[in-house]
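Tutorial, part two.
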Amino acid sequence: MILNRSRLRRSRDFAESVAVAATGGALFDAAGFPAGWLAGAMLFAALAALAGRPVMIPTWLARAFFIAIGISLGTVATPQTVHGMATWPLSIALVCLAMACVTAATVAFLVRVHRWDVATAILASMPGALSQVMVLAAERRLDLRAIAVVQTTRVVVLAIGVPAVLALAGLAGPSRPPSGTIAIADAPVEFLVLVMASVAAGLATFRLGFSGGLVFAPMLVSALLHGGDFVHVALPGWLVNAAMVALGLVAGARFTNTPPAEMVRHFRAALGAFVIAILVTAAFAGVAVALLPIGLGDVFVA
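Running the prediction step on this input gives:
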């Protein structure tokens, strides 16, 4: 009886979480907001968590949606993209150097200004890999809440603020679905190959402990299949939107059980860290634009 009640409560909490996040995503998308489904879901889920409402998503379901996100990201690759790869090595090197400098500058800020310990500051400053960072923090018994606030604030501001600023500045237009795709019903074999290969790659890299493997491996497989002109199908839009809502729930849940005073303190640190990261990123974006035939908006987002 107790087990049944627990399951019923978790089901209700999950249904409420999905309703809140999906509402935010739908509203932002209807308003034409850049990355609306993701940005709205993140914001609404975070606000619900801060208000004390349960925000959760089963781990297995979140991982499944991460694979879907990876597949979707890979579909933007085309044979034309592959032909332009000659410009990639230098740009990738610049991105790697930029991320190293962003991490170092943010760590210095958190340690010297906010008196964080170095280990906590490093994990809070690492771009991306939120899930892996939280696992490492838990294993090392670091300040999970501080790291979660800084990491999630970065994601929320990036998802909501940066696309809007770029759009207002005329550096980014509305998102477009991948071109050249065909309906799943017209190429079911291609779709099965795409999904099965992506899932297998994602699970393999995840079990090997590869950081972000559930997203990166399916993205790479999807990009290779689409870029090599082997498959021409993409995931249906409703599934991609659902994956964005799931990602928003994962990020928003990080704000659960955060006292207001602690939230304000960590939020100040998060905003300062974000400003430093943006300044360093902007400097490298300027260098990349000067050296490569790539638009400022594309380079800055990358």
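The chain has 13 helices and no strands. In part three we will examine how such features are distributed along the chain.
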